[in-house]
Amino acid sequence: MYSLITESKQNIQEYNITGTIDNVGISEENIISLNIDNQLTDSNEFRLGGAYIGQLSATFVNVGISRNSWVGKDIALTVHIGTHSIPIGVYTIDTAEHTKNIVDVVAYDHMAKFDKEVNISEGASGSAFDFLELACQQVGVSLGMTRADVEALPNGNQPFVLWEMGDIETWRDLIYWIAVSLGSFATMDRNGNLVVRTFHRTVDDEIPSGARYSSSTYGDRIITYGKVLAYNNENKEYIAVSSIIGGNETLNLGANPFFQTDAVQVETYLENIVSNLSAEIEYVACNVTIPFGFHYDLGDVLQFPSGSGSNYNLFCVMGYSFTYNAECQINGIPVQKNSKSKSDKALQNVSTSSDKDSFSSYEQTNVSSIVILENTEERILRCRIASNRNTKAEIHVEINLMSLANVTSKSYT
């Protein structure tokens, strides 16, 4: 959340937006309409992982960009309140439609860049930071976190192995499952960088009744989590871990490709996740409309004292729709009808077959470098081969080596 929100809210009616479309500047005079939507979970049930794509829809007028050159350009926007400037995201134009000097565009944030086929395979190993950094390098997006930031998340300092591909087809799929493994959600920050955030109970802001529309609604039930489940594809069974704190909901994490290992390790992962969720999530559902909203980020915790709200309940921003010069609609945690996760879909054996004359080829890039010390051995390749007939398998490996020798330096006077 924007840190100077208290001061900037005092002048909330005086804000304006400027920005750029690539190198071409735009101001509020060029903006007829503008809407930004994003979310961290499904609207019907709470899920970890996030990795949703933020969308910007806008109508511009009199912008000095020629026809047939809009698609692919980045829109970067900033809100100005007094002396403060608040970046509100970077979006790449996907479609543009022209009517005289007016252009309607639909643009997506940089999460869409991760919808690119992965080039890693089963057996890839490394830390969560290694996987996130590799994904960003492969699609040309910056990671807005340090290694220490990632290690501070639940399971952030645990080793991970991609035991099976599961439903991972794109880098966004992989980011989703890494975020699930961290008990968190992935999203893009205000500068267009990938970040993974966890949940918290610290109140980020209070919005009084006078700053909320009367149509806003607030739930009654406090949602907490006291148990998490993970499905093991090989054993065809769930592994469950409960929190000592307790909670009224169970969260099903489905068949996580990073959790397809021995039960002891999976239980460690789940204990770290449920400990965090049970301690931090104590949210009430809401659907609140306010005349501003560009200050807030996904995952922010709000309170709505007085009026129809509550002086003590916590409401988490899990989705928003911001309309320039109009309003912002904030959605809280969805009311739980069931606790199935996004990945818990028709769990069944998946078999593949090929014709006798077919040939398959797979390319894998290692997640992180492997350091081999003097007089030591390290495993540099792990592969799994399946075939429905007697055959030969060829493996071609290219290893980039960097040798570092002990060098004695001397200085002379």
Structural notes for this entry:
- The strands form 5 sheets. Strands 2-1-6-7-8-5-3-21-22-18-14 form an 11-stranded antiparallel sheet, with no helix packed on it.
- Strand 11 (185-188) and strand 12 form a beta hairpin.
- The radius of gyration is 24 Å and the shape is globular.
- The protein contains 5 helices and 22 strands.
- The longest helix has 18 residues, at 263-280.
- 12% of the residues lie in helices and 31% in strands.
- The model is unreliable at 338-356 (pLDDT under 50).
- With 413 residues, the chain is of the alpha+beta class.
- Helix 2 packs antiparallel against helix 4 (171-181).
- The chain has helices spanning 5-9, 128-139, 147-151, 171-181, 263-280; strands spanning 16-21, 24-26, 31-39, 49-50, 55-61, 74-81, 84-99, 102-109, 125-126, 160-161, 185-188, 194-197, 205-206, 217-223, 225-232, 237-242, 249-252, 283-290, 301-304, 310-316, 319-323, 327-331.
What are its keywords?
413 residues, alpha+beta, 11-stranded antiparallel sheet, 5 helices, 22 strands, globular
Determine the fraction of residues in helical runs and give it as a percent range: 10-25%
**Mean pLDDT across residues:** 86
The share of residues in extended strands comes to 25-35%
In what order do the strands lie side by side in the largest sheet?
2-1-6-7-8-5-3-21-22-18-14
Query: Count of DSSP helices?
Result: 5
Biggest sheet statistics: 11 strands, antiparallel
Strands, count: 22
Distance between the termini: 57 Å
